[in-house]
Amino acid sequence: MHKTTLALAFALCTGGSHFSAQAAGFLIENTRVFDGQKILSARNVLIADGKIQDDNFKGKPAAGITVINGNGRTLLPGLIDAHVHAYQHQELPLLYGVTTQIDMFTNVDQMKEINEKMRKGENRERADLISAGVLATAPGGHGTEYGLAIPTLAKPEEAQAWVDARIAEGSHFIKIVIEHGHEKRPFNSLDNATVKALVKAAHLRNKLAVVHIGTLKEAQDALAAGADGLVHLFVEKHISDADVRELVKTAKSRKSFIIPTFSVLESIAGLKEEDVLTDKRMTAFLNKTQMQTMNAPYGQQARPDLLTAPKLLTVAMHKAGIPILAGTDAGNSGTQYGISLHHELASLVNAGMSPLAALSAATSVPASAFRLKDRGRIARGYKADLVLVEGEPDKDISNTRNIVEVWKDGERVTAQREQKQQEVVQQNVQKNLQFDLPQDGRIAQFSKGKLASPFGADWGASTDAFMGGKSSISLKLADTETINDQPVLNIDAEIRPGFAYPWAGLAVMTGKVPMEAVDLSKANTLKFRVKGDGNQYSVGISVKGSYIPISVPFKASEEWREISIAFSKFSGLDPAAITIIAFNAGPQPGSYRFQIADIRLLKE
C-alpha cells in the first residue's frame, strides 16, 4: 500500500480538520453507513491512499478532495464472496461490488500471481483472492475429476507433509473434502482419521481447516474432526428436529462457521437465480456465454423441496449465534461470479435471516472468520474497498443491486463497469458465422473412408484422454447396412475409471478452427436414428466460452428408432454460439456399443 502523506498523517494525529492538497482522495458526503455490523446515521467518510482515513469526518475537505453525494444512499464495505472457484472471468466480481473472493480450489500458479500482486498493493483492477489453492482429497476423490494432476493423500501419516506443501505454495487456508458421492457417481473419500489429522496439521501451522461435505453424516463427521467451518450445507427434502439440534449443538461447541452456498444448492435443485437474471442492471455485464452458465442449473427439474434442510439449518444456526457466511460456489453451473452473491444475500433472507444479518454475512463475518483484519468493515485504517448503493439494503436486501459506485483500494471501478457494458453490447450485436443448413438437414455425410460434415471439421472420436482419462472408442462404418439410405456408423466404447466423469463418443466441431462458434439458430431440433445395447447415452452440445457441454440423455434400444430433441431441452443453450455436437457413452464404467445414422438439424 502507498504510505499516508506526512500532511495527512499530521492532521489525523493532531485532530486537524483541514487536509493538504497533496493528500488527494475523496469524501463521500452525508451518506448512511453500514459499517459491517450496524447502520450508522448520515456521516462523511474520507478516503485517501487506498484506505479509510476517517469514517466520521467533520472538517472541511482540502483542495483536491473529490466530494461525492451520499444523500439517499448507503455505503457498504466491499462485498466478500466466501466460496468461489476463481479459475475464470476475473473481470466480473468487482463490477458487482465483490472486492474479495475466498477461493476453495483453483490453479496454483494463478493463486501465486495474485498473492504477489496483493503483497505489492498492485491488485486494484480485480478482486483480491484468499485461496486454499489445492484441496485435500483422496485418490479418485472429489476434486480429481477435472483433469488436473493434484496431490492427494490416503492416510493420517501423510497429513502434515501435505499441509506444509500447500502452505509453501501460498495457500491461505486448508480445504478438506469429505464426499462419497451417490450410487450413480460414487467418489473415494478421505476417512475420518485422515480428516482429523489434516485439521490438526493445519492448526499446528496456525491455518484454518474448512471442509466440503454433501450429506448430514459428512457434516457431522467434519465437525467431529474439528473443522473450523463447513463450506457447504446439503440438499435434502427432510431433516428431523433432533438432527437440526444436534448439528447446531456440535457446530456451536466447536465454534465453527457455516457457508450454506444456497446459489449452488438451488442449481442442484433445478432452480435459476431469477431475481438477478431478470434485473437488467445485473445482466448488463454478462456476455452470452456468462449468461448461458447462469441459465443452466444442474437439476433438470425444479425441486424446491430439496432446500428444506439447508433453510432450516441456516436459520437455526444463525439463531444460535453460529457465524453464517455468504458464499455462492461460483464457477459451477447455475452460478456466476459477482452477480450470484446478490442472489445469495436474497436467499439468506429468504431462509429467515434479516437483511442486516445477510449484509454482515457478506462483509464483517467472512472477514472475521478468515482472519482478514483489513477489510469487511468501514472503520479508520481499513482498506477502501467500498460499494455505494441507492436506498437502504438493510431494509430491502435487493437494494444491494442499486450500485452507484464501487471502489477497490480507493480506486473507482467506473471505467471497468462502463467498458464491460460496452463490450457486452458489442458482442450481442456481433454475429457468429451463420450456417445455412443442407436442404435435408443432414449434418452426418458419412461415406467410405470419411465421416464428413457440412461444418468446418469432420466427425471424429472424442474421449476423456485429454483430461487424463483412460476411455477408448472405435468408429467403423457398417459394410452394407443403411438407414434411410444413409450409412450406419458402428460405435464401440470402453469407459474406464481414470477421470471422474469419463466419456467416449462421436463428435463434430462446427467451426473451421477449434472452438469457433457457429450460428445454428436456423434449426431448433436435432434428430437421429439409433440402435444399441440398451444403455443410456447422451447428446452434448458445447457453446462458445464453455468447456462443459449441455447434455440430454437418450437410450439406444435394441431396435432402430428415431430420437428427436428440441433445442429447448438443452438448458440454457444459445443456438447462435454452438462449437461442438457430440454423442457420448458414459460415465458408468463398462463396454458400450451403439449404431447411429441419419443425423439431422431441422426447423420444426
Automatic annotation (TrEMBL):
Superkingdom: Bacteria
Entry-linked InterPro entries: Amidohydro-rel (IPR006680), Galactose-bd-like_sf (IPR008979), Metal-dep_hydrolase_composite (IPR011059), Metal_Hydrolase (IPR032466), Metallo-dep_Hydrolase (IPR051781), NADH-UbQ_OxRdtase-assoc_prot30 (IPR013857)
Gene Ontology molecular functions: hydrolase activity, acting on carbon-nitrogen (but not peptide) bonds
Keyword DNA repair: no
Keywords: Hydrolase, Signal
Gene3D superfamilies linked: Amidohydrolase (3.30.110.90), Galactose-binding lectin (2.60.120.430), Urease, subunit C, domain 1 (2.30.40.10)
Secretion signal, residue range per the UniProt entry: 1-23
Domain annotation NADH:ubiquinone oxidoreductase intermediate-associated protein: ranges: 457-571
Domain Amidohydrolase-related: 74-413
Presence of the UniProt keyword Glycosyltransferase in the record: no
Name under which the protein is recorded: Imidazolonepropionase-like amidohydrolase
